[in-house]
Design a protein that fits this description.
The chain is an alpha+beta fold and 132 residues long. The protein is built from 3 helices and 6 strands. It has one domain: 3-Layer(aba) Sandwich (Aminopeptidase), CATH 3.40.630. The protein has a 6-stranded mixed sheet with strand order 1-2-3-4-6-5, with helices on one face. It binds coenzyme A. Coenzyme A binds next to strand 3, helix 2 and helix 3.
C-alpha cells in the first residue's frame, strides 16, 4: 500500500499529478500524469498506473478518464506527445489505448518481472496537437 501511495503522490513542482474518476463520491479509477520539467523532456508527458477498480470495469470509466486526461495534457503549453508502457499481454488495456489513438512503437523484451515471470513492455505514443 505504501508503494502505491508513493507512486500516486503529487509532486509540489507539478511534475506529477493524479487524475481520478468518481461515481458519486466513490473513487472508481485514477491515472498518474508525469510531466518532466527539464527543457529537454518537457514536451512529452508520461501516463502511469492507470487503474479502474474491478467493480467499475467495462463501464466506460477507463475510456472517459483517458479522454479527460488527454484533454488535460493537450491544454499544457508545449506538450506534443503522451507516452505510456503496458505489459504486452494486457490485451484489454492495449485495446483501450488503441481506441483513443495511441500507436504502438515497440516492445521491450522482458522489461517487467511479475512474481518471477518476465513480460515484454509495449510502448505507446499519442501525438497531440497542442492548443497553445
Ligand atoms: C485496463 C483498465 C484500466 C480498463 O478500464 P475500464 O474502465 O474497464 O475500461 P472501459 O470500460 O473504459 O473500456 C474501454 C475499452 O477498453 C477495452 N477493454 C477494457 N477492458 C477490457 C478487457 N478486460 N478485455 C478486452 N477489452 C477490454 C475495450 O475495447 C473497451 O471498449 P468496449 O467496452 O467498448 O469494448 C482496467 O481493466 C484496469 O484497471 N485493469 C487493471 C490495471 C491495468 O491493467 N492497468 C493498465 C496498466 S498500463
Amino acid at each position: 500500500m505504501d508503494e502505491v501511495a508513493a507512486r500516486i503522490t503529487p509532486a509540489a513542482d507539478g511534475s506529477i499529478c493524479v487524475l481520478g474518476i468518481f461515481e458519486r463520491d466513490e473513487l472508481a479509477g485514477f491515472v498518474v500524469v508525469i510531466h518532466p520539467q527539464r527543457e529537454k523532456l518537457c514536451h512529452a508527458v508520461e501516463l502511469a498506473g492507470m487503474y479502474v477498480a474491478p467493480t467499475f470495469r467495462r463501464r466506460g470509466f477507463g475510456r472517459t478518464l483517458l479522454k479527460v486526461t488527454v484533454a488535460h495534457v493537450q491544454s499544457i503549453a508545449g506538450v506534443r506527445q503522451i507516452k505510456l508502457g503496458v505489459n504486452a499481454t494486457n490485451t484489454g488495456a492495449k485495446a483501450l489505448y488503441q481506441s483513443i489513438g495511441f500507436a504502438s512503437y515497440g516492445v521491450e523484451p522482458d522489461a517487467l518481472r511479475v512474481d518471477g515471470t518476465f513480460y515484454g513492455e509495449e510502448h505507446y505514443v499519442l501525438r497531440i496537437d497542442p492548443l497553445a
